[in-house]
Amino acid sequence: MGESMTWVQAIVLGAVQGLTEFLPISSSGHLRIVSEVFFGDDAGASFTAVSQLGTEAAVLLFFWRDIARIVRAWFVGLRHASERNLDYRLGWYVIIATIPIGILGILFKDQIRNGARNLWLIATMLIVFAIVIALAEYVGTKRRPIEKITTRDGIVMGFSQCLALIPGVSRSGATTSAGLFMGLDREAAVRFSFLLAIPAVTASGLFSLPDAFAPAGEGLNASGPQLLVATVVAFALGYASIAWLLKFVVNHSLYWFVGYRIALGAAVMALLATGVVSAT
After folding, report:
1. What is d(CA 126, CA 103) in angstroms, rounded to the nearest whole number?
2. 144-86-138 Cα angle (round to 5)
3. What is the CA radius of gyration of the chain?
4. Residue 218 — pLDDT band, cuts 50, 70, 90?
5. Would you tell me how many other CB atoms lie within 10 Å of the CB of residue 183?
6. Which site in 59, 154, 155, 255 is 20 to 30 Å from 200, CA atoms measured?
7. CA distance from start to end of the chain
8. Within 10 A of 250 (CB to CB), how many other CB atoms are there?
9. Distance of CA 145 to CAs 151, 179, 181, Å?
10. How confident is the model over 76-89, as pLDDT tens digits?
11. 185 has which bridge partners?
């Protein structure tokens, strides 16, 4: 059985989750790195998934008008073909795009919780996917707004979301990059990335609740109150990061995050190579 998590650790890790969830830098990778480097242990996949409920609550609050409009349009469109507008299509795109990660998340649950949390893998993916994001920025035409999104865009971004099952990749980085490769502008790619995250991440968090409250094995074990506080902290900082990112991508490229990912990945590799931290 792993060690009990302290309140400081719970608050710090909740803050890390909130600050990094929506940026293309991998929140799960950051939680793994911060917990190992500063606390000498792994926060655990269940803590990561449950704390994500806070950031998903932030998405629900930030986009509640859009979500309500899409849900209403979807149900209306099911009954009346003449009412099948952009919001109706977005509803279907989110549903279809969520299926791949739902299937793979269930099939590879054990691998995600154990082997995929190796720091060598996380550091490598931070660097490798930084290159992918840079390529997306470079080759993407960024000409199509969200009004021009298609079924093909939704499917491609849905499959790209599956890459986020590997810590270090970044769910938002994978889906936003896919959108850029498909020609969407940054704001469209980021907005659909947020909508796409809601069912997948919420389901993951709820699915992991039993494991988080009754942890077994190695790693830091959080109590119920600590999980609650970490989730609230993640919610508050996550809400702020959504607002910041949407403004940032209007006038700035994702190259800023590329440099950060490469620097962090290289730093983690150096710590691993010198034996300062353990990979597992």
Report:
1. 24
2. 20
3. 18
4. low
5. 17
6. 255
7. 15
8. 11
9. 14, 11, 14
10. 999 999 999 999 99
11. none
Q: Which amino acid is at 123?
A: A
Q: Check residue 271 and give left, alpha or beta (phi > 0: left; psi -120 to 50: alpha).
A: alpha
Residue 96 and residue 158 in contact, taking contact as beta carbons nearer than 8 Å: yes
CB 134 within 8 A of CB 62: no
Going by C-beta distance under 8 Å and a sequence separation of 6 or more, which residues neighbour residue 204? 49, 52, 105
DSSP H helices, the chain, are: 7-20, 27-39, 45-62, 64-79, 86-107, 109-113, 119-139, 151-161, 171-181, 186-213, 224-251, 255-273
Whose tokens are 């803050």? That residue is 15
44 three-state secondary structure: coil
Say how many residues make up the chain. 280
Question: What is the residue type of 117?
Answer: R
pTM > 0.85? yes
